[in-house]
Amino acid sequence: MIKAILIFNNHGKPRLSKFYEHYTEDTEQQIIRETFHLVSKRDDNVCNFLEGGMLIGGSDNKLIYRHYATLYFVFCVDSSESELGILDLIQVFVETLDKCFENVCELDLIFHMDKVHNILSEMVMGGMVLETNMNEIITQVDAQNKMEKSEAGIAGAPARAVSAVKNMNLPEIPRNINIGDISIKVPNLPSFK
Amino acid sequence: MALKMVKGSIDRMFDKNLQDLVRGIRNHKEDEAKYISTCIDEIKQELKQDNIAVKANAVCKLTYLQMLGYDVSWAAFNIVEVMSSSKFTYKRIGYLAASQCFHEGTDVIMLTTNQIRKDLSSPNQYDTGVALTGLSCFVTPDLARDLANDIMTLMSHTKPFIRKKAVLIMYKVFLKYPESLRPAFPRLKEKLEDPDPGVQSAAVNVICELARRNPKNYLSLAPLFFKLMTSSTNNWVLIKIIKLFGALTPLEPRLGKKLIEPLTNLIHRLHKHLSVFAVLISLSSGMPNHSASIQCLACVLVKYLGLLAMSKILKTHPKSVQSHKDLILQCLDDKDESIRLRALDLLYGMVSKKNLMEIVKKLMLHMDKAEGTTYRDELLTKIIDICSQSNYQYITNFEWYISILVELTRLEGTRHGHLIASQMLDVAIRVKAIRGFAVAQMAMLLDNAHMLTGNTQRNGICEVLYAAAWICGEFSEHLKDPLQTLEAMLRPKVATLPGHIQAVYVQNVAKLFATVLRGQEGVPDRQVAQETSQLLIDRLPLFVQSANLEVQERASCILQLVKYVQKLQQKEVQVAEEVTALFAGELNPVAPKAQKKVPVPEGLDLDAWINEPPSESESEDEKPKAVFAQEEQRPTRPRHPEVDEKELARRREARKQEQANNPFYIKASPSSQKVYAETPGVEHIPVVQIDLSVPLKVPGMPMSDQYVKLEEERRQREKAERKKKKEKKRRKDKCGRGHRAESGGESEEDITPAHTVDIVTEEMPENALPSDEDDKDPSDPHKALDIDLDKPLVDNEKLPVRAHRPPDALKSPVEGGEGEGVAQEPKKKSKKDKKEKEKRKSKERKASVCFCFACFGIILGFVIGRTRGAPVRPLAVPETSSFLVQSYDIQGNLQDGSQVVVSVIFENKSSSSSFLKCMEFNVLDSLNSKLQRPEGASPHEAVTIPFQLPPGVSNEARFVFSVQSIVMPQKLKGTLAFIVKDSSTHEKLDFKLHFTCTSYMITTPCYSDAFAKLLESGDLKASSVRLEGVSMPFHHLLARICFHHHFSVVERIDSCASMYSRSIQGHHVCLLVKTVSTVSIDAKCDEPSLLENVLQEIKQTFAKC
């Protein structure tokens, strides 16, 4: 079982948190902070596994994480999951994000947390791995987005226009300027299949 | 109305959406909290509005704020509102919010049951999907009970998308509602062989999770999993299955042998993956020096996993791991903490009598070097674990162990002072032979207490003093110089220690005092004894003033006692014996579970009332006088009924705490009654010269080394002696035996402990019941799932079904559909079809998915170019004898009523090495149906197929057709052009696509009540057909209709059944199938020509058999 999935940046700011067991908001924040503390002090060239133990109940658990540019993707799992399998799942997740957002960068995750959740929900459900095939995930996500779009129809058009204008006017979306949001590089390699 | 909607949407677009919120938070870095609180106010306003879009937007923002740590449970009801929106967009937002912040304690969850049930049976698969995903995060026992049956139905949904989610969520349902496991298990087992790999892997996932906790119930599935393991290509499934076998093999040893071969094959495959993996990681972490890092990363990963694997092997084959001791010790030097921790874990299992000292010495060295308190603490606990495991089995020299413990106290800033302390206490109490040594060491610790308490108060190590003080006091007869220790314990600095330690100090000061007095007995000079009393009287007031009650109480007691003793001393009375008598008797350790194991004596009912229970009718507004009178009458009446459960638990906890901290709790020694006897004369108190020649050892010195050396010498000596004996013996029987191989190294058993160590076993009550029950945690949810799955189902185990629905109507889709449908399938296919099918079996999923689940499915049926004849040219390409086979199926597109997807499987069947490339697919469009071509292509252009086909390979391509009207069947002519690579000849293949009306039908489950309503509505046109000469069992007939024509059974009564299906454009088709002598089908549909065609097609199907 996967106990939690966390994404945070190099400064420990949460970008996505998904807990498959219930904790209060305060505990969740504390878990994120502690996880960040544990993970961030590790070199890039040490292994991607960390026995968190006390973080999310029981010594059975471990943290499996990967660091992409500015973001850490951390999965907290118990012993029924394979370490390499989860590492691969993280890779699939990131590649899927990359496909869905077209060159995903931290900003995408910041502004579209809901979309990231939707993608994640096609991969992991209630702490169990649902689908590992990237194409299948993308097909389902796309189909659902299409449905959403068709529902918005004409009524949605003005809202979309306004939000486009909003995005245009504000000088704050410097996708190309490096303000610490370097895009996530996904290697163009066949995944572990 | 329309105006209102437009107005609403215009209002809405100036609301703050999620992106605006995020942007705003980023712009208000300094006063983020303030900004967010204004945002929350806005959200509250938005939630009050009627417009669901506004509400959904607000809920979406709340989900974001929840991630930032804000409590949003106050909006739970609004979330439910958004969840119940009919639009998918909002529904999804609602379910996401619910999955993030609902939990078992959320009360509005009760309100969602019906909404979720509605969504689960929604015709839109994505509504169902979203509901399942959400439910998986917040399922409660109530929801699980109410929805178990609905979810079980979904497990045989036509869409693999829903099926896999339904299968997966069953695990959560089982956890919350264990009764559902038995009824649902047969179907879950079926899903292991689902044609869709996603569903299959979900089923494997669920069963593995279940089997991990209670493996013995799943042994019967072993052959099935074995088959899966050898056939599956999905790595996820393989990993899970191997993990499952890991749990099963200990229970069934024969499995292990069987597994060897497939596992070796797998290892060969996985070996490749590992390296691929290492490459992936190094590249993705964006390091510049790839080539260098690959090597090291590969090492890192493999090292970690290797250690992990070793720890598993260790459990079964300790010998094979022990030979790698050096390697593992090396890993302790690794800079990666994870690897070090893993290595430590391994060491735990590797120690033996022989190597314990060596390993611990290495660990001690590491501890000196280690930076980071967590790792150091981990090392410390591991050292203690290693040494104390299985009742100190591996320790041959307890002096060494005590010195190790003393050395550990030098560790700065550790949290584990109490652990060391409890070890010291345990060893000193249970190993009688060591007490003298332990007391000497503890006295030294007490003397140097300032070094332990030195820097900070929060230093956990001062706990050690607790143990030291107690050991010195309790076993003070071993002390060389009790007076000095007494002085050390009365230093003013002691008052800065934590209260519970001071309390122990004070108590043990009294014990020491008794020892000193006894020591002075018979010595003519009484000065020392009197000075000691004076010392106590001087110093104890410090403790009497303590803020800690325990310390205060003990101190004042003892102070009074000493004052009394002093008075007697002045009268020259002998007091030593009496004072010693206060602390006489042995304290024995008690096993931790002893209390629980005391058997209840016969005839004692613990639940029975001691007195009459207070009568219920005793109301509160009774006259107070009466109450008082009653209470007076029975003052012994237990107060317990007034104390609520929580309070009791708290008290119990407090009491346990107290007992744990109190060394005197261990056992009430029979002679520890306080005896204030007459004091005899003091004349004969002896005076002993204090021997100062005892070398003072500073505890900073590592001493354990010298014990290691001593121990080694001892072992050498013993070995030599043994050898001598052996030699003698050998000389004796030399003639008989000839040469006997010299024993290589000394074996485990040869090492005898340094001195006969009497390890006192922990006391258990008499006739305690031996049981290991209490090892299991009763709160473990998996315990409830320990259910025998092979027993047949009993009636009362069936899942609860909503009352207003007849139960057999619910079950019928399963009975009538799936089971027989699959069983039937092979018969009705022509031989050639069968052959094709077998060929395809080994191929990837889609084709066969639809095939097996056709009874619910959306296919038209396979038309294989060659076999279905028609004007299709022979497919053989004569020159190369290559052989192209195509098969296809047609699926309605759920989202779009005017589209169908045709999946075509191309297989290159050539025997030689001819390669097919540049394949182009073209169809002659009709007015009604058009092939959708990529944008910008002309209306007659061919669609290029994006792959090439090596010989013997098949692949699937999908083409989308737009369809105007679906009421008529039609045929489309098409051509496939391709180039055979070797001969580079252009080839062309004609084919026909047959769009039957059935292919536009979608199997949709329908409940009997909805079905009845539909028929009553009167919008439907009726028609009927008779099938002549059909002589098959009725359920086969139904299965066939389900399979070929995408119907589902609504209800079945004897030889009469109602069936339902829906077209992609939403036409309802209802059938009533009856058999009396012939089969008659009465049908109703809102589109007469569609109905006519469907019935014709059904007739054709049965005409063929």
TrEMBL record, chain A:
Alphabetically ordered keywords of this record: Cytoplasmic vesicle, Golgi apparatus, Membrane, Protein transport, Transport
Subcellular location: Cytoplasmic vesicle membrane; Golgi apparatus
Keyword Transport found: yes
InterPro entries, alphabetized: AP_complex_ssu, AP_mu_sigma_su, APS3, Clathrin_sm-chain_CS, Longin-like_dom_sf
Cellular component terms (Gene Ontology): AP-3 adaptor complex; cytoplasmic vesicle membrane; Golgi apparatus
Main localization, broad class: membrane
Annotated membrane topology: Peripheral membrane protein
Protein's GO biological process: Golgi to vacuole transport; intracellular protein transport
Domain of life: Eukaryota
Cited Pfam families: Clat_adaptor_s
Domain AP complex mu/sigma subunit, chain residue ranges per copy: 1-147
Family, similarity comment: Belongs to the adaptor complexes small subunit family.
Role played: Part of the AP-3 complex, an adaptor-related complex which is not clathrin-associated. The complex is associated with the Golgi region as well as more peripheral structures. It facilitates the budding of vesicles from the Golgi membrane and may be directly involved in trafficking to lysosomes. In concert with the BLOC-1 complex, AP-3 is required to target cargos into vesicles assembled at cell bodies for delivery into neurites and nerve terminals.
Protein's recorded name: Adaptor related protein complex 3 subunit sigma 1
TrEMBL record, chain B:
Top-level division of the source organism's lineage: Eukaryota
One Pfam family this sequence matches: AP3D1
Renumbered residue ranges of the record's region Disordered: 606-667, 707-754, 766-840
GO terms classed as biological process: anterograde synaptic vesicle transport; Golgi to vacuole transport; neurotransmitter receptor transport, postsynaptic endosome to lysosome; protein targeting to vacuole; synaptic vesicle budding from endosome; synaptic vesicle membrane organization
Biased composition (Acidic residues): 766-777
Coiled-coil stretches noted in the UniProt entry, renumbered to this chain: none
Bilayer topology term: Peripheral membrane protein
Entry keyword set: Acetylation, Coiled coil, Cytoplasm, Golgi apparatus, Membrane, Phosphoprotein, Protein transport, Repeat, Transport
Compartments where found: Cytoplasm; Golgi apparatus membrane
Start-end of Basic and acidic residues biased regions: 631-658, 708-721, 778-808
Residues of the AP-3 complex subunit delta domain: 643-790
UniProt-listed InterPro entries: AP3_complex_dsu, AP3D_dom_metazoa, ARM-like, ARM-type_fold, Clathrin/coatomer_adapt-like_N, Mu_AP3
Biased composition range(s): Basic residues: 722-734
GO CC terms: AP-3 adaptor complex; axon cytoplasm; endosome membrane; Golgi membrane; presynaptic endosome; terminal bouton
Gene3D superfamilies assigned to the protein according to its UniProt record, in alphabetical order: Leucine-rich Repeat Variant, Longin domain
Family: Belongs to the adaptor complexes large subunit family.
Described function: Part of the AP-3 complex, an adaptor-related complex which is not clathrin-associated. The complex is associated with the Golgi region as well as more peripheral structures. It facilitates the budding of vesicles from the Golgi membrane and may be directly involved in trafficking to lysosomes. Involved in process of CD8+ T-cell and NK cell degranulation. In concert with the BLOC-1 complex, AP-3 is required to target cargos into vesicles assembled at cell bodies for delivery into neurites and nerve terminals.
Protein name: AP-3 complex subunit delta
Native species: Paramormyrops kingsleyae
